TrEMBL record:
Keywords: Cytoplasm, Metal-binding, NADP, Oxidoreductase, RNA-binding, Zinc. One of its GO terms (molecular function) is RNA binding. It is found in: Cytoplasm. It comes from Jeotgalibacillus malaysiensis. This is Zinc-type alcohol dehydrogenase-like protein. Pfam families: ADH_N, ADH_zinc_N_2. Residues 20-338 form the Enoyl reductase (ER) domain. Gene3D superfamilies: Medium-chain alcohol dehydrogenases, catalytic domain, NAD(P)-binding Rossmann-like Domain.
């Protein structure tokens, strides 16, 4: 059998259970259609990994492989591929509907894959795809923010949860677009990280938002990007958003939201889910290929920097359990990356 190493699961268990993620050997896939087969060099871990892995009754006959951030080298291309060839260095997030990238080789549709930034190592590049796609789509597609700095003069964006992976990229992209960025952070180390990413101001998300915004000279903000605890911040968001402003969110609220709070101000509320294009194979799916290439160019031109915070060793069940645990503690800063198989 043409086999490969991977980290997978058969049962959905708490991360403290050593059976929650397992070192497994599975069949090496083959590229068909528009798929490319990538030799995985480095992977990053995201909250979506912990959500998919979280305890539930389901049992997998074939080990389920997580992981939606990959940097690697094209090994093989399907017959319908036109964007890449073997030997190309790539980075991407993949599709939630398919096996993830925590394996030696990984199949992915070329339309959601970008050229790896030439100036970055595989480890540095693996930190970027999922968060870059999420931040880019949220700001420029969902919220319809202009990329022209002249257009955004005097406009502010509030990012709730700015120290995480998405917040770190969103801060940089928003600054590039000429926005004033206010990031929330609650610890000295996260405040420092958010400022290092380019935020103009920081406020504390554990305290009411509007009084803190007013204290730094903002009576309201036209754009709010909420990255966690949406229901906890919902009332504060409705108070702080400008009339006719736009609110975007990515996390799942644990209780229903009262949309009426936004009515008097005619506020637009939008979701961003970066897997939508791949999941539904939308007509504009190739936008993610172009978006990632744009990110790669911006990195190579030193307009954007990687949000890599920690490398915790090779790709193994033990190291991935450690990474999941860190993410579930809600205290991770930037991105956690693993490199290669032993």
């Amino acid at each position: 059998m043409n086999s490969m190493k991977a980290v997978g699961l058969t049962h959905y268990l708490p991360i403290d259970n050593p059976q929650s993620l397992l070192d497994v050997v599975v069949e090496k896939p083959k590229a068909t259609g528009r798929d490319i087969l990538v030799k995985v060099e480095a992977i990053s871990v995201n909250p979506v990994d912990t959500k998919v892995r979280s305890p539930k009754e389901k049992v997998e006959e074939v080990p389920k492989i997580l992981g939606w951030d990959v940097a690697g080298v094209v090994e093989e291309t399907g017959p319908d591929c036109s964007l890449f060839q073997p030997g190309d260095e790539v980075f991407y997030a993949g599709s939630i509907a398919r096996q993830g990238g925590n394996s030696e080789y990984h199949l992915v549709d070329e339309r959601i894959v970008g050229r790896k930034p030439a100036s970055l190592s595989f480890v540095e590049a693996a930190a970027l795809p999922l968060t870059s796609i999420t931040a880019w789509e949220a700001l420029f597609t969902r919220m319809s923010i202009s990329q022209d700095p002249d257009h955004n003069k005097g406009k502010a964006l509030l990012i709730i949860g700015a120290a995480g992976g998405v917040g770190s990229i969103a801060t940089q992209l928003a600054k590039q677009a000429g926005l004033t960025v206010i990031g929330t952070a609650s610890r000295p180390e996260t405040v420092s990280w958010v400022k290092s990413m380019g935020a103009d101001y920081t406020i504390n998300h554990h305290d009411p938002l509007l009084p803190q915004l007013q204290a730094i000279g903002f009576s309201s903000v036209p754009y709010i990007f909420c990255l966690n605890a949406l229901e906890k911040h919902w009332e504060g968001i409705s108070e702080a958003i400008s009339p006719q402003g736009v609110v975007c969110a990515i996390d799942d609220p644990t209780s229903p939201l009262d949309l009426k709070l936004l009515k008097q101000k005619s506020v637009t509320f939008v979701w961003e889910f970066m897997f939508t294009r791949a999941l539904f194979e939308t007509d504009d799916m190739i936008e993610q290929h172009q978006l990632l290439n744009h990110i790669a160019d911006a990195v190579d031109q030193q307009k954007l920097k990687t949000t890599l915070a920690e490398v915790i060793g090779p790709i193994s069940a033990e190291n991935l359990r450690q990474a999941h645990k860190l993410l579930e503690s809600n205290s991770a800063i930037g991105k956690i990356v693993l490199e290669g198989f032993v």
